[in-house]
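Revision sheet: structure tokens.
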Amino acid sequence: EDQMMETGSETVPIEPTEGDTTVTVNALTVGGVDALAQNTGDGWYFDPAANTLHLTGAYYDGEAEAAIYAEGDLTIVVAEGTENTFNGVDNGILTMGNLTITGSGKLRATASVAYNSGGAYGAIAIAATEKLCIFGANVTADADMVGIGSTGTMEIVDSTVEALGARNGLYSSGDLRISGSTVEAHATSVQADNKWDFRGYFLMGICAQEGDLLIENGAAVNASADQFG
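Predicted:
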């Protein structure tokens, strides 16, 4: 798996490089509630016209496989001054499509299952099957396999992010761009705190598997792992 790091001579705009959501979400559950049928819940509401889930102080720790699950593209806006926590079994947040997280409040996502009994993608706190963008947000993610993962590309722009996983803190199949952000990304193979034993695997705090890693615009990044930072 070839990996490259590029730093800084190239001028890149601070904004996300692509549009955030283009497809209406086809299914959305929040804490086990069908948010397309019931647009509001305790600490959240969904705006179907803007395809946006607003978090205003939500807390969920239950038996849903994903505490927030979407089919299609989704934007999550975290309201200023609020704290929001979502703990699912396999995923805190899972979007089968593009995912954008923005807003100045705090969002914490966790997954409680151990890796050897996780879902199709393993236990990932925040996951998207296409592009994942965190823009101007404060996000903490902790799961057994990967903290924050995308099977497409990932951007973290003007945000504060802590991503913890047994195998990867941050994982992107494609390019991974960190701009103007403070990022902590840590991986440990030690079986503790419900983290599975990954000794013998390639463990990385940050992994851009088939893409480039770009750190720019004064980003402060602290990455560590048992094998590779």
